[in-house]
Predict the 3D structure of the following.
Amino acid sequence: MLSANMVTRALHAIANESESVYSTSQLLSKSRTTMRAIERASAVSELGCACNLLAARVTSLWRLVAQFDQDLSDGQLRSFGELGLRAQTLAALFLLDELYEEIRNDPARYQDLFIGRFRSIDDVVSFIFDSLAQLSHIWVRQAAQRSLVLTPVVDIACTPTVVYYAAIRNAQQSIAMLDCNADLHHFLTRGELRADAPRVASACAQLRAVLHTTLSRELDPSLFLAAALFAPPQRHNVENKYG
């Protein structure tokens, strides 16, 4: 059964592995003229293995999220950032459901978690759900426009691709900023400290982590080509999923 833990673990793994792949590729690029041949061959082989591992994890996360996301099940994905946003949203909704089920049965026990605009778990759920829905509407619209616009645009700053990636980045930053909301910050902080309610504490900690986990590296497809060239032939890349 799909759970928030499964999605968050996969999301964290990809975030860490993509940073590793990016760093290795940058090192190779900068050391092209100074690195000895044997060192470079070893680094390229390492990059190939890292790319294969990253590709496998991306495919795993894709399959997890696609179970609940119609766009992914139809093969509509344009970037790592978009996959991350869809995974963040799904994981957050799972965690909100866990918190709702746990807190609604004994609201008086958790009253100290609510301040300001939040008077009950319903207010927390509504706030996060509405915020994610508004942000999703913006970047999903930009993604659709990027797919539909076929004519060249003179001003590169306004091309559908640039606008799309800007929308993705803005959404990532806005999701992370939700934790800066004083009322939500209080809820998550107090919830994490509830040793008498381990499910609530775990869900609050995971929700905070999810809000701050982004896939910010849009990796060069050539990295996956390197994986194909320097790794066993039975392994395959997933660059065709990123149109």
Observations:
- DSSP finds nine helices and no strands in the chain.
